[in-house]
Design goal:
With 366 residues, this protein is α/β, with parallel strands linked by helices. The chain has a seven-stranded mixed sheet.
Amino acid sequence: MSPTLEQRIAATLRQDVQGMAAYAIQPSAGLVKLDAMENPFRLPEALQRELGERLGRVAINRYPGAGIAELAERLAHFVALPDGCALMLGNGSDELIDLLSVACNVPGASILAPLPGFVMYEMSARLRGLRFVGVPLRPDFELDEQAMLAAIAEHRPALTYIAYPNNPTANLFDDRIVDRIVEAVGRQDGLVVFDEAYQPFASRSWMARMAAHPHVLVLRTLSKFGLAGVRLGYLCGHAALIDEIDKVRPPYNVSVLNAEAALFALEHAHEYARQAAVLLAERERLAVALAALPGVHPYPSEANMILVRVPDSARAFAGMKSRGVLVKHIAGLHPLLAQCLRLTVGTPQENTLMLDALAASLDGPG
């Protein structure tokens, strides 16, 4: 008798994969979507038409070519890439995180990151057969310097990720501690990756400092810039290092349509800068309003999200959703996030709806 599909799965798929949970994406139809740190603004209609016409002229019958090199050159200029450094493109920063795991998978290698943090660091490490070492943050979501230094000395990680700002806590870590961690990793012959996904909303960056630290890489994405649907990330570092990592990148990993849309966005960077300014102002308005709600504790943010602790996060999440507002319930991701919600900064109207929904969910039944 032929084996059942369940038996085939059990026999052919990795046991650790079978035990994993897939990355969860919440259904959002009909809801105010404030769960994924997306830029809530569409392009003005005139720019939408211009982009549509431009994409219509792209030679989609050909593999990506010169346009990809042009995008890399334009991005290097846009971010003021330091002399002696280079960048490589990825299908979002997720692919680049995975490619780093592939490139650094020497025997016994490990990847280290603070927790709570971006889930893809651990997922990529485990799927690629590397050990993952998670070091809990302090209760105030600052780096635990002694624990980090001890873990670096013990495990000698090939890669140490520092999300800057961190996801989901939205804070920038103390640079004095960060500097000592960077030095410690350098002494152990490892690499430090600064994940600057939220750079458009942060007050500090490691891009300019990277030139003085050959073992430091800076990872960014255009998702928070306003192109989450385009899937375009880029990894920056000393040219010799990037040249080696780039060898594991699949050919044609960035589509011609994605590249053309990104080029268009860079040409209209002033529009995205205007949108970011609105979101920064709204972030401050939200922080003040959230702090005034009874029992709500908002944490400082350098991103386009705010972490809040509430008396009953499950009740608040369900109540907000029933009132048409979708946020992210993250209390189960790590013990330090008990009773926490992550709120994306939306448009002024969306933020008012979110505040009203949260206030009503605190006061009354879901």
